[in-house]
Design goal:
By secondary structure, the protein is mostly helical. The chain is built from 4 helices and no strands.
């Protein structure tokens, strides 16, 4: 949630300290930021540190954060939210959707 809110805040040119928010406050802030127009389409979470294809756990079920990030971006891109994905597939989908959504 912290990474997502930081990226979302950057895309809206909003100043948010995710470490100062509890889970409920962070959820409310995310909803608030989603309603604001995007100001900085170049804001992104950056590239993965390691190539997802080399992950030893790449076939494991995608993390909750990955699933949530894919769902938000897929909806924004007007795409169907994918079903179950592995970690590698989710990471690749996130990169694809970043290009489509500007997130």
């Amino acid at each position: 949630q912290k990474s997502f809110i930081s990226t979302l805040a950057a895309s809206k040119n909003a100043s948010v300290d995710p470490n100062a928010l509890n889970k409920s406050e962070a959820s409310a802030k995310i909803n608030e930021l989603k309603e604001q127009p995007t100001q900085n389409a170049d804001a992104s979470a950056g590239q993965p540190i390691q190539d997802p294809k080399t992950w030893s756990t790449g076939d494991d079920k995608a993390t909750g954060k990955q699933v949530g990030y894919v769902a938000v971006m897929a909806k924004k891109a007007g795409e169907e939210v994918p079903g179950q994905m592995g970690k590698t597939e989710a990471s690749q989908k996130i990169e694809e959707l970043k290009g489509k959504t500007g997130m």
